[in-house]
Design a protein that fits this description.
Oligomer: single chain
CATH class of the largest domain: Mainly Beta
Shape: elongated
Strand content: 25-35%
Structural class: alpha/beta
Order of helices and strands: HEEEEEEEEEHEHEE
Distance between the termini: 40 Å
Largest sheet: 4 strands, mixed
Number of domains: 2
Radius of gyration: 22 Å
CATH architecture of the largest domain: Sandwich
Amino acid sequence: MNKALFFSGLTTAFLAIACSPHALAQSLTNPTKLYTGTIYTAGTNDLAGEGMLYVFEDPYEESPVTSSRINATAGGYRVLLDPAKLYWFRIEALGFYTDDFMVSSPPGEDYEERVEDLRIRPIPIDSLLFRGAPFEGETALFSDNAPMRNVLEFLVDNPTVVVEIGVGLEADEVDPVTKKRVNAIKKLFREMDVSTTRIASWTRKLDDLFGTITMSIDSFAEPEESDY
């Protein structure tokens, strides 16, 4: 078999993989470098489980150039990339921080296979993300919502995280001011493009000072839809 035709056939086959629903190529021009690997839990040889790997030419771009589903049972991924380019691999997996990894594809037009195993950090369940009294006096107006906005930015970056919000009360009943504060928090979620469905529960905290708000990681869930 003609060698050029052989590699042309390989490239066509892997392009079909890259353009499947599991890997949506958008701006690749000469993809001849096949990257495969396994996603592990950091510090262990345990598989991270099912997730998505997105490939960006610029970590600040809105859309990836390609992507791959991470196999739930084998932990594997595969993406076909252009040669001699710097890429960022972004991994989103249930129960793990969203992490970026810089990968430099080798030069040359010939087809080449590379193995790149990656390790991602698990998010500890029940982690406290926020604790404070963000409202002015006896009102539902934020005195300083910057710390809470930082938490919401964390939720944007880590779309599998679901939170529990605790509200400090003086009695086991929700007063009008607290109801307004709950609505103010929900409004802030929407302003930051974080769905309020990611609030697993609101908990009455009788052992906290009135007006104290806590936010902790309750669980993990598949994102409602991909940002990409």
